[in-house]
Amino acid sequence: MEHVLQIFVCDLFKKHIDDNGITQNLLSQKLNTSRQVVSNYLTGRTDFSLNMFERFCNALNIKMSFVIAEFYKKQGVSIVSEPEVKYQAKKIESVDPKDLLIRSLMDQVELSKRYISTLENQLQLNKQTGS
């Protein structure tokens, strides 16, 4: 993960953990790992892989798309493109609004996965070049 995103994710997870009274021991049990591993991720000593990011989100009952959307919001960027908004605004009578919402959320998750993958690739390239 890109360093700025990594810090944001750590802070968001820690706030959620504090706000909900979750202990690192409980979280480590949900993740089937040690408390030290959880601590390393939450302090930023260990970078999140996409897999571990997804596991933390699931264990904390946080949607991945929410985390990414909050990150973009903090950066002042909207992740919903203008054509998508126009498409969503046109209600088709034969389609259940829930189906449109689910499709939109799935699209957001795919966008988020691609963005995270790009960031991870950039991080690997930076590590290889020593930047």
The largest β sheet comes out as: none
Q: Strand share of the residues?
A: under 5%
Q: Let me know the number of strands.
A: 0
Q: Terminal Cα separation, in Å?
A: 15 Å
The shape is globular
Please tell me the CATH architecture by its name: Orthogonal Bundle
Q: What's the structural domain tally?
A: 1
Low-confidence sequence ranges? 81-93
CATH superfamily, by name, is: lambda repressor-like DNA-binding domains
Give the averaged pLDDT, no decimals.
Answer: 81
State the share of residues found in helices, binned by percent.
over 70%
SSE series: HHHHHHH
Task: Please compute the radius of gyration using only Cα atoms.
Answer: 17 Å
Number of helices: 7
Structural class from helices and strands? mainly alpha
In quaternary terms, these chains amount to single chain
CATH fold name:
434 Repressor (Amino-terminal Domain)
What's the CATH class label?
Mainly Alpha
Can you offer a commentary on this structure?
This protein has a single domain, classed as Orthogonal Bundle (434 Repressor (Amino-terminal Domain)). Helices cover 74% and strands 0% of the residues. The protein is built from 7 helices and no strands. Helix 2 crosses helix 3 (35-42) and helix 5 crosses helix 7. The model is unreliable at 81-93 (pLDDT under 50).
